[in-house]
Design goal:
Number of domains: 1
Radius of gyration: 20 Å
Low-confidence stretches: none
Mean pLDDT: 87
Strand content: 5-15%
Length: about 150
């Protein structure tokens, strides 16, 4: 019997974690890795405030497709222009984190970190490609209006 399976036989009340995503180079994997490290993630966290994905949408995705029951609570904050606003903060219960580590989350988190380092290593090359593309788009736009 594998050690992780034995853990659940020895602790029948243990929380069962969700599945770990196969792709480790995604925003979803990074958010889950942060939660598994015991961090609280908010809707305002710049790491997950992507133009195409919010922390809330990633949490829903992890729940629906991978079975992660991520706890959330609301909090109030003041916007830069002085308005009252509300956001959510997300976390995993300690027993879920413990169960996930028994099932191999530590190795998976290492893979997510390695993927993030590889992506950061190519960031300057991608930024140069973005500049080339934007110059090309601007040139096409000028040509279309002439």
């Amino acid at each position: 019997m594998t050690p992780s399976l034995q853990y659940f036989f020895d602790n029948p009340q243990a929380a069962i974690p969700g599945e770990l995503p196969v792709r480790v180079d995604t925003v979803s994997a990074e958010l889950l890795a942060a939660l598994l490290k015991g961090e609280e993630v908010t809707d305002l966290d710049p790491r997950f405030a992507q133009p195409t994905k919010s922390a809330a949408s990633v949490v829903r995705y992890l729940d629906r497709w991978y079975g992660w029951r991520i706890a959330h609570s609301k909090f109030a904050y003041c916007t830069d222009d002085g308005r009252l606003a509300f956001a959510k903060k997300y976390s995993l219960p300690k027993d879920v984190i413990t169960s996930a580590y028994v099932c191999g989350a530590e190795d998976w988190i290492g893979q997510v970190r390695a993927a993030a380092k590889r992506r950061l290593a190519t960031a300057s090359r991608i930024a140069a490609q973005v500049d080339v593309l934007n110059n090309w788009f601007e040139g096409r736009a000028r040509g279309a209006t002439s």
